[in-house]
Design a protein that fits this description.
Layout (H helix, E strand, L loop, with lengths): L6 E5 L6 E5 L19 E5 L27 E8 L6 E10 L6 E5 L6 E3 L3 E9 L6 E5 L2 E7 L11 E3 L5 H9 L8 E6 L10 E5 L9 E5 L25 H7 L4 E11 L5 E10 L13 E7 L5 E3 L30 E4 L11 E3 L2 E6 L6 E10 L6 E6 L30
Antiparallel strand pairs: 1-2, 1-3, 4-5, 5-8, 6-7, 6-9, 9-10, 11-13, 12-15, 13-14, 14-23, 15-22, 16-20, 16-21, 16-23, 17-18, 17-22, 19-20
Amino acid sequence: MEANWDEIIVDDSDQSTILYQGSGTAGVLTGLTFQSTGPDIYLAVNSDNGNSCQLGSFITWDISVLCITCTPPTVTYSIVSDCDNGPQFYVDVDITNMGSATTLAITDNQGSTAQTVTSTGTYTVGPFANTQSVLLSVTNSDDANCFINSSLLENDCVPMKISTTEYTNAQLITDVLINTSCSDATNIIASTGSNYGSVNGIGYFYDAYNFPISEGIVLSTGNAATVPGPNIGDNTTFSTSWLGDADLENITGETNTSNASFIEFEFIPQVEHISFDYIFASEEYTPNFECIYSDVFAFILTDSQGNSTNLAVLPDGTPVTVINIHGDSGSPCGPSNIEYFNGYTGENQGSINFEGRTVVLTAESDVIPGEQYHMKLVIADEGDSNFDSAVFLASHTLNLGFCPPPNNFLCTADELTPVSLEES
């Protein structure tokens, strides 16, 4: 068997339950043990049809087949993901019958200390790293031939999941961002790199662990599919055909934008104040860039009179940018508004593939109930398209107010019952 290319498959007596499938530890099968539930056990080799073992050196397999000399325990193994605390997992070992044993030992192929149990119950072992392939055994302490092995157990903690197809761009507003059933969001228009023959910078993110916002909309100046972490070097999208945005330049005073992604829509609020939460992240959070470079974004709210306001600002009105919000990275300009900066992301770390990000911020504004407004959520590269940025909008945080009932649900005068109040 060619290490890491071929694999062995061990089937139970029913020839459908796989007891093991793999190549051991780098092709070394020493220590692998299996127990069938019936009179037969099957072994097969799944070859990649590459190199022949006859062309190189090989080691002869020694296989021992033993008869069960006891009543085996009844055991099930369940993976318990612990992604919120790191890329790791535990395994619950549920022993529902001790068999003929008075004492059982729970061991694994990772060298962990054996756990001795004397009664049925659920026992937790771990943690194990996501990169580990764990094989657990529950063995009768008085009879080493009496054991129950798990299948090969593995877990994967994806820091964040991204979909560009689960929701349309219109549904991202009506079903994800807005938290009322009748949103009154109309005339929804979106644009991103895919409109210019480049990548899609708009997506739905979800199942984000160790990230303050677990679900929502992401708008990126690059490929939305590369937004999830860990941070693995420069997240860069270079496109000469992907245009910037004139509205963004007008509201911020910046020029020379490119790689713009936006969603815009109209709505009629039923409340006097609107708000939603967001996080800004960028590849420009480095000592070389954060003093002089910053991609630009805005949440442009326009009322029925044509007056526009950028809601992507700090409480004192300072625009949210890399230059205006960053930590102490050793850059010549020093930290700026550091209380709004979450921190820098190390290599191969973090939930998102960016060098740094803000804390959760809130965009908010007073509005007039019943008046029509226009909102444009837009982000773009500024100066060049070499380093990407993104803004994460928290799901169901834009509250537009209650849903007014239809007119036929309103009371008429003849339906009202007069009530007289008498002094007691």
